[in-house]
Amino acid sequence: MKTATLLLVFVSAFAAFSSPAAELEPKLGKQGALLMEEKFDGKELPKNWNRNAGKLTVAEGVLKASEVAADKHAAAFRRPLPIQDAAIGVKFRFEGAKMFHVGFDPAPGELKKQGHLFSLIITPAGLSITEHNDKSDPKSTNKALAKRVATFEKGRWYELLLEVKGDDVLAQIAGMEPLRATSKDFHVKKPGLVFRTGGKDTDEVHLDEVRVWELK
Description:
This protein is mainly β. It has one domain: Jelly Rolls (Sandwich). The protein is built from one helix and 15 strands.
């Protein structure tokens, strides 16, 4: 085989291996219009990214988030975007943070419950899809509907595709088996994305290339 042909084969194989887009295709529906995209290329927190608690900075082309002990609350931030059935792509890496959540609240008037709807919870040791408790009911508790042991290395980038369609949720991370869960309330309208992270003040999670598509 000629050198040029060998080089072409190598480049093609490398591209197939390194491209998450080839692996992370929606499974619950057909990908529709791109509703939002953020690459954090500027020096300031982009418009419409709202900090509720913790510290958020943009540097080196990524969003850096960390908890602040004085808040006595996990770092929490939101990106408003009215959606219902959608696919959310996120590139993330742990830089000391103990957990990272991507989740949703129900839109006002959609449910009688108070509080969050559900979250994909990722820690350095695993991940789960958790339905959150009803804060108006003292007996209500969080429920891990699906969970898996996995290793997320510090300093390594991971590609996530989180889908919600009807009452089904599917989380895909490149190189891992998908995680799926269902609950009767997941189909409701959602006002946007909810992110949380926690750890010591110096423990960060980094985000990049956040994209949201309509899911048909």
